[in-house]
Structure formats: structure tokens, C-alpha cells
């Protein structure tokens, strides 16, 4: 009986404990090396940085915000425009008489190159380049010093008779038929002559038109 009981029982399977897989150790990421700057990148950044370096600051100097309108519009008014707040900008008062202007001409060595700015009413001193430009224009020369008006020109149409035409464009059909516009004009003139609207010119009188002034005396 004991044997049969022992035989009827099944042995429980032995459960082995699972071994934990060791997680792979993460290697430390290498530090990024300092990349050498690309010369093109440096040039591009330099261009971006100096983008407004050569811009002129004319708008900063113009205190009159009237804009580019003819100043003749304000000849009959005491002001020459309006500021950003909408207030009038009055014309500068010129209280200096001819004697003061003559004294300024004698005392100021740059008086001959001083002009008045019509936009702001201030006196501006012309630079040497501006004076040279004015002198060239007054003498009938070109404004640019480096301009050469006698450069060799390309002679597209020479005086020699060529075999082939300049353009190989075929002639139009209207070159071989009479003009319809001229035909209509001629028909109108013929109709006007038939109707008597156009008269031929009268022949001139062959007798002379002069006479003796003292013939009756």
C-alpha cells in the first residue's frame, strides 16, 4: 500500500531561481571636442555682423520729417513741415543782415563752401570731394573721376558691305501688298475733290505788286 501510494504521487518539479541578467554598463559618452570654426562660417558671421556698418545715417540727421516733397509748397507758410508729433516745424529766422554776412565772409575761411540745407535750415560745410564734384559739373565734365568716355566702342554695324543680312527675319506680307490705310486716305481725297471741298490753287497773278508811290504827284 505504501508503495502504491508512493508510486501514485508525482514529484514536484524543482524550480531553479532565474539568474538576473547583468545590465550592460553604460560607457561614459565622450565629451564633444571643440570643433574648429569653418572659415566660411566666420566670413558669413562677419558679413552679418557688418551688415549695417556701411549704411548711411541720413535719416538720423534729418530733423525735418516733412519727407521728400517740394519745399515750394511751404513758401507762403511760416513752417516747413511737421514733426513726429504733428506739430509744426517753423522756419529758422534769419536775422543777419548784409553787413553780418559780409563780416562772416571776411572772417570765416570756409564761407565759400558753406551752403544752407533747405530741409533743416542749418548751414552745412561742403567737403573737398563735394567741392571737386561741383567744380567738375560746372566745367562740363563727368561726375565720376574714373569714368572714361573714350573707351573703345564695339562696332556692331561697320561700313563694309556684308554678304549676309544683319537679321535673317523674313519680310512681312504687308511689304508686298498696297497699304489699306493709304488706299482709304486716297479715296477720301478723291471724294473731296469731286464734291468740290478741295479746290486747286489759283495761279499767281504775273503783274507786279509794286507801284509808283509818287505817280499822282
UniProtKB/TrEMBL annotation:
List, as start-end ranges, the regions of compositional bias called Acidic residues: 51-61
Q: What is a biological process (GO) this protein takes part in? A: rRNA processing
Q: Where is this region: Disordered?
A: 1-61
Name the major location.
nucleus
Swiss-Prot/TrEMBL keywords: Nucleus, Repeat, Ribosome biogenesis, rRNA processing, WD repeat
Q: Which residues form the BOP1 N-terminal domain?
A: 74-217
- Can you cite an annotated GO cellular component? nucleolus
Any coiled-coil regions, as ranges: none
SMART domains, per the entry: BOP1NT (SM01035)
Pfam families, per the entry = BOP1NT (PF08145)
Instruction: Please tell me whether the keyword Repeat is annotated for this protein.
Output: yes
Subcellular location(s) per record: Nucleus, Nucleolus
InterPro entries with a match to the protein in the record? BOP1/Erb1, BOP1_N_dom
Protein name as it appears in the record = BOP1 ribosomal biogenesis factor
Amino acid at each position: 500500500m505504501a508503495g502504491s501510494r508512493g508510486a501514485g504521487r508525482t514529484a514536484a518539479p524543482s524550480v531553479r531561481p532565474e539568474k538576473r541578467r547583468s545590465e550592460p554598463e553604460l560607457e561614459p559618452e565622450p565629451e564633444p571636442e571643440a570643433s574648429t570654426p569653418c572659415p566660411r562660417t566666420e566670413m558669413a558671421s562677419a558679413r552679418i555682423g557688418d551688415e549695417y556698418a556701411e549704411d548711411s545715417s541720413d535719416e538720423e540727421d534729418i530733423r525735418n520729417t516733412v519727407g521728400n516733397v517740394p519745399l515750394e509748397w511751404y513758401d507762403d507758410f511760416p513752417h516747413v513741415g511737421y514733426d513726429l508729433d504733428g506739430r509744426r516745424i517753423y522756419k529758422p529766422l534769419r536775422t543777419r543782415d548784409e553787413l553780418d554776412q559780409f563780416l562772416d565772409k571776411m572772417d570765416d575761411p570756409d564761407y565759400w563752401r558753406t551752403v544752407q540745407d533747405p530741409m533743416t535750415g542749418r548751414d552745412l560745410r561742403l567737403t573737398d570731394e563735394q567741392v571737386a564734384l561741383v567744380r567738375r559739373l560746372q566745367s562740363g565734365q563727368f561726375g565720376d573721376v574714373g569714368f572714361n568716355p573714350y573707351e573703345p566702342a564695339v562696332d556692331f554695324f561697320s561700313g563694309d558691305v556684308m554678304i549676309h543680312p544683319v537679321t535673317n527675319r523674313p519680310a512681312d506680307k504687308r511689304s508686298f501688298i498696297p497699304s489699306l490705310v493709304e488706299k482709304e486716305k486716297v479715296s477720301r481725297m478723291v471724294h473731296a475733290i469731286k464734291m468740290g471741298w478741295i479746290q486747286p490753287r489759283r495761279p499767281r497773278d504775273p503783274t507786279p505788286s509794286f507801284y509808283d508811290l509818287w505817280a499822282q504827284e
